[in-house]
Each structure stands twice: as C-alpha cells, then as structure tokens.
C-alpha cells in the first residue's frame, strides 16, 4: 500500500481516524486547561491568603502535583478510580469490574497537574499588579467586586497570558500520556495504526508532525491574544 493510500481518507486509509484523534487531543487539552483554571485560581487565592492554613494547603497542592510524575498521577486516577468504582458497585450488588471513563480521568488528572502550574502563574500575575493602583481604587471608595472587575482581572489576564500559553503547551504534551488508558487520542491512535500496518516509523512521524502543527497553531493563537490584550490595555490607559 502506498503512503498516499495509507494516510488517505479511503476505506483502508487512516487519515480520518488520525484527524478525529487530533480533535480528541484538542478537546481533552481544552477540558484539562479549564479544570486547571478552576483549581489554579482557588490555589492561587489560597497561597495569597492571610490564613497560614490556606497557604500551607496551597503549597502542598503545588508541591504534590508538580513533584509526582504525570504518568503516575494518571495511573493513580485511572486504576485507583476504577478500583473505587468497582468496590462501590459491589456494595450495591453489581458484579464485575467497573472502569472510569478515560476522557474524564484524562481531563481531571491533567487538569490537576495543569492547575498546579496555573496557580503559580495567577499568583505571580496578581503580585505584578501595582499596589498603588489598588490603594488608589480603595481610596476613592471602590468596592471589592468593582476593584476586581475593573483593576485586577484585566491586569491579571494581561500578566498571566504568556504563562497560560506555556501551561497549554505542557498540557498538550501531557495529553499523550492518556494513551495508557486506551482513549483514542493522537498518541494512542498513532500506536494502533503503527501496530496494525507495521509502518511504525511512518505513523510515529505523522503523529509527531501533527503535534508540531498543534503547537505552532497554539503559539500563533496565544501571540495574537497577547498582542490584542496589550493593545486593549494601552487603549484603556490612554483614555484615562
């Protein structure tokens, strides 16, 4: 079979399967980044809190999820979660093994890892905001909600965006580890295609090329977002 047929969209081609796997990788990474944004924001708030207990919790979270290998975390969530689900099922009279959905495990595991990095990004962004602006806003009687909406959030987004771009790239690469759960993302599909056709070099090269395409497109998106936020911020300063 020729390379064109092998990678084509015919009955024996893997083109459509690889594109669906590419889409699954993107969706998984977006879901993980969203999960990480929630946990990252909460942990950043904890690390910036005046409460020593919350600061200890925040430090423990980032140390744990940045210190343990990503693959081990995925194994713990997938096999540990399946064991818990099976035990709960047996308690209620169900028989057999109950597995957790690979996509949910992937989004949660990578999201929690992502959250440990996003927390540091958000914390640094908040600390980068000028204290003088915050004090001036409070001096004119601005409420806390208005302070966050008009002063803090716009600047935190501006300062955090480059770091979030790096976290996105990290999560995109970590999504390949979800192949161990059997989810048909890009890495798993490349493995299956290579094993089915014995064209290992071809499909691993194609998989790598598709990851590079995602990385390049992602860099463009974040570069444009940074430029747009920067122009918007300068326009706001000019109006004031």
From TrEMBL:
Keyword line: Cell inner membrane, Cell membrane, Membrane, Transmembrane, Transmembrane helix, Transport
GO molecular function: transmembrane transporter activity
Subcellular location as annotated: Cell inner membrane; Cell membrane
Keyword Transport: yes
Keyword Membrane: yes
Similarity comment text for this entry: Belongs to the binding-protein-dependent transport system permease family. HisMQ subfamily.
Positions of transmembrane segments: 20-45, 72-92
The protein, known as: Histidine ABC transporter, permease protein HisQ
Any one annotated GO CC term: ATP-binding cassette (ABC) transporter complex
């Amino acid at each position: 079979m020729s390379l064109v047929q092998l990678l084509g969209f015919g009955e024996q081609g893997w083109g459509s399967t690889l594109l669906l796997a590419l889409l699954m990788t993107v969706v998984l990474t977006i879901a993980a980044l969203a999960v990480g944004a929630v946990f990252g924001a909460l942990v950043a708030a904890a690390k910036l809190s005046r409460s020593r207990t919350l600061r200890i919790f925040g430090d423990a979270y980032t140390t744990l999820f940045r210190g343990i290998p990503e693959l081990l975390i995925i194994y713990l969530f997938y096999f540990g979660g399946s064991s818990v689900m099976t035990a709960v099922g047996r308690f209620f009279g169900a028989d057999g093994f109950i597995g957790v959905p690979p996509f949910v495990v992937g989004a949660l595991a990578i999201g929690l890892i992502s959250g440990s990095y996003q927390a540091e990004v958000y914390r640094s962004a908040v600390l980068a905001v000028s204290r003088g602006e915050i004090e001036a806003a409070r001096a004119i009687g601005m409420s806390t909600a208005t302070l966050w909406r008009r002063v803090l959030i716009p600047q935190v987004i501006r300062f955090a965006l480059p770091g979030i771009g790096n976290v996105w790239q990290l999560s995109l690469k970590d999504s390949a580890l979800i192949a161990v759960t059997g989810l048909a993302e890009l890495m798993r599909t490349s493995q299956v295609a290579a094993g089915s056709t014995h064209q290992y070099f071809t499909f691993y090269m194609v998989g790598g090329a598709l990851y590079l395409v995602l990385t390049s497109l992602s860099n463009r998106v974040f570069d444009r977002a940074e430029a747009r936020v920067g122009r918007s911020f300068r326009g706001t300063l000019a109006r004031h």
